[in-house]
């Protein structure tokens, strides 16, 4: 409180903050409450639900300021009971008090247990999501919660972001061409599970999924996921070997180039030396639907569906299980695998070597770390998960088009990593889910909200918000970079690097190291 | 000079040019096993360039470097480290945002065997290796007097401790030959004296061969078995500390011709 007078504050913002901090606490709090009430009144004219939501969030934040026992607990309980009364009288959905109760409960978990408890809760919520999704309340501005179809999209992009995080977050290699791996995976799935090559006839373990006499190559998706991962990892090594000698900006430019070359091949690959490889701009569609075949399905009592597309006739917990649900759960399994590998690698000998290279290549080399090989491993591992995600997503959409693989997707995935927090898997998951959701539903919903609620008289703006998506993501990144460059949930180490800097001078004498003479 | 079997490192006619500038010019040099050898010389004499060639950071323009009987000229840094040359840097290059023990564990990289696949599976072998590595890293930190700082981030360590951590990290590579690039730069006399004792312990207890670049003559004269002097990229003198101290060319290199003549007049030399 006395610091404001002691040090001369530079800059308008700091001066304002110093004056604010110099006020007595009661005045500050009263002023805050007044401002919040005013904002709420303003929002009330815009949208009743938004004002209510705002007040609820304010209440939650104020409750955090109370001493935990007994007051905070009592306050939180009271809030939940209040919301429950609203629900009981039909003024709100039951999901509102339940969500708040769960949210409060999560904060009561002791810090020590949070490390595993929060991911476990998140996973449980995700697995059960298809069951309660339709019963959830509508958010102000953002509208309804994403449907399961969007959920699959989100999980696939989270998976890619976690993969890219190995390259960018762990090893510190700026990769602007990650979409190339996504494309490789997608086209691998498309080639080996469609009628793209009608003159061949090859079948492998896709019993019961497609009719017997279909032309083309048909391999079970489960094999293809592995195959796509391996092929993409190999492709990553091929791209990596010439490019990973470069550092920083140079590496980024070269990866950018590779990221552009691939979709061009896909787009123009309908007549490569007279051979139709990619079907050009029309893409490859449809793809075989994944499935486990009738034998396995019957053996597991229908737990593993015979065919994902025609699935399912079961009703579980009052919910008619649909095709999208099964795709969603399978995607979750793949994501868990990705996160598991990512975490194991982070704490391994290889993970340490990646961090060492990110911090100081020269010193890392001098400590016996083979730079090229270690970087290539990072690249190949990131590529593997990108490939698996691409193959799965192509199979889910039952199509792959060259238009899906342009530069903006690379940047989009990179944004997810940066927004969430480079190097921290949990941060990346949060950032990626949020951006993927925005891209698929959030922006459209927000646009609809703006168009119906913000108007002058009868003049509605009629904005097509998803049209501005790139600009909006750019703005989000600029804001994150200004206010919190380490991302929403940062890794401690990356945060320190961003604030304190790292050594990064060239290791080999590519340039004349005259300063070192 | 002793025979080649007794020399850990033999450098023959090594040369480094940066464009037109000759940084190191046809230097012959040998480091006998189990000794502490100091490399001294005025600023810009080419000492660090010489070090960087030994450790593979620079490729020599000419000449050969033989380490334990094997030609290592132009090999990449990690390959040279694997063969048993550990080093520290003139301006400390720790992994600033890693903890002390992590820094040491990175140093052990080439002595560990876990790969991508068994790291993901975390096989019993990997677990055991990791446990033993941590155990050994703790021992090294203890040896360097850093046991209190095991989990401190490297950047938060006091300066002298950072220097010692760099040595501990270099020791973790299990070197036969340890290269120290101005290890006492920026230390106060007490820290320098402690460091001299520490290097002595490396020679006596760890049976290490040490080659160091050093400016502090008290350290050089106090610990070295042999001293070599570089000036303008050329080796101008070599011998025991006593011999080098009296060498006219060395005095000239450090203090200039006038000083030598001055000393001669006064009958000091």
SSE map:
The complex is a heterodimer of chains A (517) and B (269).
Chain A: H1 3-6, H2 12-22, H3 25-46, H4 48-65, H5 68-88, H6 95-107, H7 111-132, H8 148-170, H9 179-192, E1 201-204, E2 216-219, H10 221-243, H11 248-268, H12 293-299, E3 315-316, E4 319-320, H13 323-346, H14 349-359, H15 361-366, H16 371-397, H17 407-420, H18 425-453, H19 469-483, H20 492-500
Parallel strand pairs in A: 1-2
Antiparallel strand pairs in A: 3-4
Chain B: E1 7-18, E2 21-32, E3 36-40, H1 47-54, E4 62-67, E5 70-71, H2 77-83, E6 85-87, H3 100-107, H4 116-121, H5 124-143, H6 159-172, E7 177-181, H7 189-205, E8 209-213, H8 217-223, E9 226-231, E10 234-239, H9 241-246, H10 248-255, H11 257-265
Parallel strand pairs in B: 3-8, 3-9, 6-7, 7-8
Antiparallel strand pairs in B: 1-2, 1-4, 4-5, 9-10
Helix pairs in contact in B: 3-5, 3-6, 5-6, 7-8, 10-11
Model description:
The complex is a heterodimer of chains A (517) and B (269). Chain A is mostly helical. Helices cover 65% and strands 2% of the residues of chain A. In chain A, strand 3 (315-316) and strand 4 form a beta hairpin. The longest helix of chain A has 29 residues, at 425-453. Residues 1-6 and 507-517 of chain A have low confidence and may be disordered. Chain B contains eleven helices and ten strands. Chain B has helices at 47-54, 77-83, 100-107, 116-121, 124-143, 159-172, 189-205, 217-223, 241-246, 248-255, 257-265; strands at 7-18, 21-32, 36-40, 62-67, 70-71, 85-87, 177-181, 209-213, 226-231, 234-239. In chain B, the strands form two sheets. Chain B has a six-stranded mixed β-sheet with strand order 6-7-8-3-9-10, sandwiched between helices. A four-stranded antiparallel β-sheet of chain B has the order 2-1-4-5, with helices on one face. In chain B, a hairpin with a 2-residue loop joins strand 4 and strand 5 (70-71). At the A-B interface, helix 13, helix 14, helix 15, helix 16 and helix 20 of A face helix 1, helix 2, helix 3 and helix 4 of B.
């Amino acid at each position: 409180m006395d610091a404001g007078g002691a040090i001369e504050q530079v800059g308008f913002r700091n001066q304002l903050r110093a004056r604010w901090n110099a006020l007595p606490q009661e005045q500050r709090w009263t002023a805050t409450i007044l401002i919040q009430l005013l904002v709420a009144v303003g929002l009330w004219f815009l949208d009743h639900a938004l004002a209510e939501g705002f007040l609820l969030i304010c209440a939650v934040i104020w409750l955090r300021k109370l001493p935990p026992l007994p007051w905070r607990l009592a306050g939180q309980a009271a809030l939940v009971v209040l919301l429950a009364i609203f629900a009981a009288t039909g003024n709100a959905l039951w999901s509102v008090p339940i969500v708040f109760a769960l949210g409060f409960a999560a904060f009561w978990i002791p810090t020590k247990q949070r490390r595993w408890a929060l991911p476990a809760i998140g996973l449980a919520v995700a697995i059960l999501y298809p069951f309660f999704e339709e019963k959830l309340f509508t958010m102000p501005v953002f509208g309804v919660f994403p449907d399961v179809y969007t959920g699959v999209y989100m999980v696939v992009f989270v998976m890619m972001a976690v993969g890219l995080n190995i390259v960018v977050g762990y090893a510190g290699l700026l990769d602007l061409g990650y979409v190339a791996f996504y494309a490789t995976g997608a086209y691998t799935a498309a080639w080996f599970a469609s009628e793209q090559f009608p003159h061949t006839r090859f079948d492998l373990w896709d019993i019961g999924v497609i009719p017997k006499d279909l032309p083309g190559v048909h391999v079970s998706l489960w094999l293809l996921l592995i195959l796509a991962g391996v092929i993409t990892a190999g492709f990553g090594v091929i791209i990596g070997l010439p490019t990973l000698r470069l550092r920083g900006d140079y590496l980024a430019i070269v990866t950018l180039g590779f990221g552009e070359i691939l979709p061009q091949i896909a787009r123009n690959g309908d007549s490569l030396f007279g051979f139709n490889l990619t079907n050009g701009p029309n893409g490859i569609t449809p793809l075989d639907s994944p499935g486990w075949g009738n034998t396995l399905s019957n053996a597991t009592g229908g737990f593993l569906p015979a065919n994902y597309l025609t699935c399912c006739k079961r009703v579980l917990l009052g919910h008619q299980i649909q095709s999208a649900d099964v795709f969603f759960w399978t995607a979750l399994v793949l994501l868990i695998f990705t996160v598991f590998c990512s975490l194991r690698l982070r704490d391994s000998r290889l993970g340490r070597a990646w961090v060492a290279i990110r911090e100081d290549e020269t010193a890392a080399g001098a400590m016996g770390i083979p730079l090229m090989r270690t970087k290539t491993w990072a690249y190949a591992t990131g590529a593997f998960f990108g490939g698996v995600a691409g193959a799965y997503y192509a199979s889910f959409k039952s199509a792959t088009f060259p238009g899906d693989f342009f530069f903006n997707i690379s940047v989009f995935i990179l944004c997810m990593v940066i927004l969430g927090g480079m190097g921290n898997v949990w941060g990346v998951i949060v950032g990626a889910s949020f951006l993927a959701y925005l891209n698929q539903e959030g922006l459209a919903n927000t646009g609809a909200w703006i168009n119906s609620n913000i108007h002058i008289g009868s003049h509605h703006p009629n904005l097509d918000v998803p049209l501005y998506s790139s600009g909006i993501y750019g703005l989000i990144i600029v804001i994150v970079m200004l206010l919190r460059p380490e991302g929403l949930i940062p890794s401690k180490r990356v945060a320190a690097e961003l604030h304190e800097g790292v050594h990064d001078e060239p290791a080999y004498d590519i340039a004349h190291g005259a300063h070192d003479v | 000079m002793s025979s080649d079997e007794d020399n850990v490192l033999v450098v023959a006619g090594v040369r480094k040019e940066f464009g037109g500038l000759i940084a190191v010019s046809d230097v012959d040099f040998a480091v006998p096993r189990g000794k502490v050898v100091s490399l001294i010389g005025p600023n810009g004499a080419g000492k660090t360039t010489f070090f960087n060639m030994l450790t593979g950071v620079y490729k020599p323009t000419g000449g050969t470097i033989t380490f334990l009987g094997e030609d290592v000229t132009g090999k990449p840094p990690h390959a040279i480290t694997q063969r048993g040359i550990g080093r520290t840097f003139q301006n400390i290059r720790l992994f600033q945002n890693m903890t002390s023990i992590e820094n040491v564990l990175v140093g052990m990289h080439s002595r560990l065997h876990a790969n991508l696949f068994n790291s993901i599976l975390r096989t019993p072998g990997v677990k055991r290796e990791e446990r033993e590595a941590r155990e050994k890293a703790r021992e090294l930190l203890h040896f360097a007097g850093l046991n209190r700082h095991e989990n401190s981030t490297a950047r938060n360590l006091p300066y002298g401790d950072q220097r010692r951590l760099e040595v501990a990290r270099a020791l973790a590579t299990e070197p036969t030959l340890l290269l120290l690039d101005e290890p006492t730069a920026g230390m106060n006399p007490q820290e320098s004296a402690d460091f001299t004792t520490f290097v002595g312990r490396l020679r006596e207890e760890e049976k290490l061969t040490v080659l160091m670049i050093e400016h502090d003559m008290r350290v050089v004269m106090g610990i070295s078995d042999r001293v070599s002097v570089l000036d303008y990229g050329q080796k101008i003198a070599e011998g025991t500390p006593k011999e080098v101290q009296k060498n006219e060319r060395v005095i000239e290199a450090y203090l200039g011709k006038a000083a030598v003549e001055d000393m001669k007049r006064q009958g000091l030399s």
